[in-house]
Specification:
heterodimer; A: 7-stranded mixed β-sheet; B: 5-stranded parallel β-sheet; two-stranded antiparallel ribbon; 12 helices; globular
């Protein structure tokens, strides 16, 4: 078994899909010789050339729009947005065009927008956000948020073989981490199927992307302390696997939703509501959310850490919930 | 397309738009619509320059562009009536229709919203060497959107086979060009991106066609995009219910003297076509075609409400 980083899993998947399908094309700022701000596309220019690995000017709106047009004409563009924060510059194109092309015009839009997301590196308020909340309310977009290397590869394969626009979230703190992956590429992972990464019956932890990774670590800590946690990794926010969420909630009767980013208006609120609507009678305690405070992400490490849930905070909240009275 | 064919198509567009205004005033169609009365020469001039396989993108004021490339007035009218037989099955309305089989990649409800999209269509054509060229029609208001600048820069950098037509109809909703453009000579913006920018009389269909053909030849030769400004006038209001208080009746009366159908009629007469029955027959055919379109739309079934969420995603 090989140990592969999240970065390498994505790079190898892009390369394999580009070899398999000549319509796959990469577009983004500094993705060519530079290899992307996080090194994900390193080496791809050398193999595939500037026609398929396209450096673009710093024009998020135009490059996303052009990718939508190319997708409408039959290519499979993969856009890299350097930091997810910059996707705000292209929201019009995604919300008003990509998300509506099929519903209104009956034109498929097989587009993948890769967006490095999240804090933890001290990059400050315009380079650290998790903004999937902006998109979860827009019908017509798929949103994938892998929490490990195999899922990153598997979900990306599904995205690249589908016919719809996909927002593909890559947490920056996952990039350097290593996982055991067998074979050349792990199998494709279908959208809309959450997974249970840790089994338990005292409390259910629900998260996605890096927070799902932290929830698993917290579950290990809790298990050592005698509290078993069921951990649900959503994998995709759209489509959302409500059934698995509700089943896990019914199993433990206690639910903690962990989310990076401000608590207000977060996707955790949607998850909580869906569980409440479907499993109210099975809950032994109010659903809780652990998320960021309602403030921009500060640059200072000390302040930034106060904004983002960590393993200790997740474990503490889960323990408190597990031990709360009915 | 000869002068008579252009005339016929322009009159058809005019009749369609007059019908749309009438149907709105009668409350028979709802929502919104932006008609292009006075701008028919741009639509028909552009369409005449296109080859089969080329692509066209349009604006919120797109009925004329669509009819010019062969859009079926019946299905367009059905879309405006919100019927299942409409181009977007009642999901798009006046502003959002497409027919890729005709190379018509959609009118678009966002100002400048199709510009980068058109770049992408052109990118695919360049990448796969399909020979397709792409024409993107925008209005003068779109020229101030960031997407205008980003898209022209990208298209120029990559030498995309793209022609951007700016349909300068003098008003961005109610804002006159002089209040919206720091430099009202819009075609000069081409120079900022190192591409040709030219201005033509957008009320003269032959002039539009010639300018677009020149720009398309450049695009097909791999020399990159061009900006063609077509100077015209929006004789109608911005949309239904626009009292047009921001401009004078005298200004409109003057514009009616120079409108494109009248201009082409004069041109045809000067060329010896003096039989009034021939002009009248064009108008009659167009009116009959639009009457058929309206009957088709009215007789068409409404979409099934149970299908409202169908098609949000394509089948993977």
């Amino acid at each position: 078994m090989l140990m592969k980083t999240f970065t390498l899993a994505i790079r190898e998947t892009l390369a394999a899909e580009m070899r398999r399908d000549p319509s796959v094309m990469l577009m983004g700022e500094d993705i060519g010789a530079y290899g992307g701000a996080f090194g994900v596309t390193q080496g791809l220019l050398a193999e595939f050339g500037p026609g398929r690995v396209r450096d673009t000017p710093i024009s998020e709106q135009a490059l996303v729009g052009a990718a939508i047009g190319a997708a409408a004409a039959g290519l499979r563009p993969v856009v890299e947005i350097m930091f997810m924060d910059f996707i705000t510059l292209a929201v019009d194109q995604l919300a008003n065009l990509a998300a509506k092309l099929h519903y209104i015009y009956q034109i498929p839009c097989p587009l993948v927008v890769r967006a490095p997301t999240g804090g933890g590196r001290g990059y400050g308020a315009t380079h650290s956000q998790t903004l999937e909340r902006l998109f979860t309310g827009i019908p017509g977009l798929r949103i994938a948020a892998p929490a490990d290397a195999a899922d990153a590869s598997g979900l990306l394969q599904t995205a690249l073989r589908g016919a719809n626009p996909v927002l593909f979230l890559e947490h920056k703190l996952l990039y350097p981490l290593r996982w055991k992956i067998g074979g050349n590429l792990p199998p494709p992972v279908p959208f809309g199927r959450a997974r249970i990464t840790h089994s338990g019956d005292r409390v259910t932890l629900i998260a996605w992307s890096y927070m799902a990774h932290l929830c698993l670590a917290a579950a290990h800590q809790l298990a050592a302390a005698g509290i078993t946690a069921e951990v649900v990794d959503l994998r995709t926010l759209a489509p959302l696997d409500t059934e698995t969420l509700v089943t896990a909630a019914r199993k433990t009767g206690r639910v903690l939703i962990v989310e990076e980013g401000p608590v207000t208006g977060g996707f955790g609120a949607e998850i909580a509501t869906r569980i409440f609507e479907a499993a109210y009678d099975s809950l032994d305690a109010p659903i809780r959310r652990l998320a960021g405070p309602n403030c921009p992400i500060p640059a200072s490490k000390v302040l930034e850490s106060a904004c983002i849930p960590d393993i200790a905070a997740i474990a503490a909240a889960a323990r408190d919930l597990a031990e709360s009275a009915n | 397309m000869d002068d008579w064919a252009s005339y016929e198509r322009m009159v058809l567009i005019r009749c369609f738009e007059e019908a749309v205004e009438r149907l709105f005033s009668e409350g028979r169609i709802m929502g919104t619509a932006h008609v292009c009365i006075g701008q028919e020469a741009v639509a028909v001039g552009v369409a005449a320059a296109l080859r089969p396989g080329d692509a066209l993108t349009s604006t919120h004021r797109g009925h004329g562009h669509f009819i010019a490339v062969g859009g079926d007035p019946g299905r367009m009218m059905a879309e405006m009536f919100g019927k299942a037989t409409g181009y977007s099955r009642g999901r798009g309305g006046s502003q959002m229709m497409a027919d890729t089989a005709l190379g018509f990649y959609g009118s678009n409800g966002i100002t400048a919203g199709s510009m980068a999209f058109a770049c992408g269509l052109a990118l695919e054509a360049q990448h796969r060497r399909t020979g397709r060229a792409v024409v993107c029609i925008i209005g003068d208001g779109a020229a101030n959107e960031g997407l205008f600048h980003e898209s022209l820069n990208l298209a120029a950098l990559w030498r995309l086979p793209l022609v951007v037509i700016c349909e300068n109809n003098r008003y961005a909703m109610s804002t006159p060009v002089a209040a919206g453009l720091a430099n009202t000579r819009l075609a000069e913006r081409g120079a900022a991106y190192g591409i040709p920018g030219c201005a033509v009389d957008g009320n003269v269909v032959a002039d539009v066609r010639a300018a677009v053909e020149t720009a398309l030849a450049r695009a097909r030769a791999g020399s990159g995009p061009s900006l063609v400004e077509c100077e015209t006038y929006r004789l109608s209001g911005h949309s239904k219910g626009d009292p047009r208080a921001y401009r004078s009746p005298a200004e409109e009366a003057d514009a009616w003297q120079r409108e494109p159908i009248r201009h082409l009629e004069a041109h045809l007469r000067a060329a010896g076509n003096t039989d009034p029955a021939r002009f009248a027959a064009c108008r009659t055919r167009a009116e009959q075609a639009i009457a058929v379109a309206i009957r088709f739309a009215e007789a068409s079934p409404a979409p099934d409400p149970a299908t409202v969420t169908e098609g949000v995603f394509a089948s993977d």
